[in-house]
Amino acid sequence: MIPAPFDYEVAESVDHARELLASREDAKVLAGGHSLLPLLRLRVFRPSLLVDVGRIEGLSYVRDAGSQLAIGALTRHHDVATAPLLQEHNPLVSYAAGLIGDPQVRHRGTIGGSLAHADPASDLPAVLLALDAEIEIAGADGIRTHTAADFFRGAFETALAPGELVTEIRVPKLSAEHIWSYLKFHRRAQDWATVGVAAVARRNGGVSEPAIALVSMGATPLRASDAEAAWEAGDDPGAVADHGTDPPSDTNGSAEFRRHLAQVLVRRATEQAGGDR
Ligand code: FAD
Question: Ligand 1 centroid vs 33 CA: distance in angstroms?
């Protein structure tokens, strides 16, 4: 289908984008367009104004920020996947970004767009949840920061209010003691995850500070807290991986199939963490 008519403005800066967004109640941010444009074509959204933030200079970067790495919201998945700083200090993020869609999707889609869109089947939201990432938002009252746990509120729902922009994402630097894995089950190579699992922990004798987050097992990315406790205790985390989840049934799989996948993938992810991928 053809989208409903809309006006189009290019934002030159974050402040300019906020001004443009404030000028119309139904204005929408356009970043890589890979999630928004299909929804415009289906007329799920009919904004009267699209504010293109894709050319704002200085919002595409990966920077060293002390104990963290800062990623600009407009950084494309390909650049996240190939950033040397991420590959060195947080390879979980770069590895997962390299599994998103296909090369075309990775060269257009942005990390900020992926978070703002908050599709429960997306890869990076769960990875950032497992890492306790911080998400910076530019709102009417200035800049504020949310944890990933607080940012995702429901399917396609976030802490963003109308007219606000995600500007930066901060993830911790992992140490040599950290082990990690990201596993994604999908039917075709470029598809979204039927179920995905991000696992990270410290290994110093045993496993400590375990974090396991699930993709497509509920309305938001979910922490598998019973599985985390089992991993730390040396029990089988797979056996309890679906506790506290509410997976959907859709054309990719039934809720029951997803529960089974979560169990298998969590078991594999925790076994593979620190090993070969
Ligand atoms: P857009 O489409 O421009 O915007 C998406 C939404 O976020 C819109 O509501 C927009 O208003 C809002 N928005 C965008 N940027 C900001 C911002 N900085 N601040 C506030 N709001 C903002 N994703 C996966 O995770 N895994 C996959 O395997 C996968 N496969 C895909 C396969 C295909 C064929 C396609 C088309 C997409 C796929 N995606 C997948 C989604 C892809 O990663 C999208 O690019 C991403 O989800 C949205 O990023 P974007 O920059 O394109 O955002």
Answer: 6
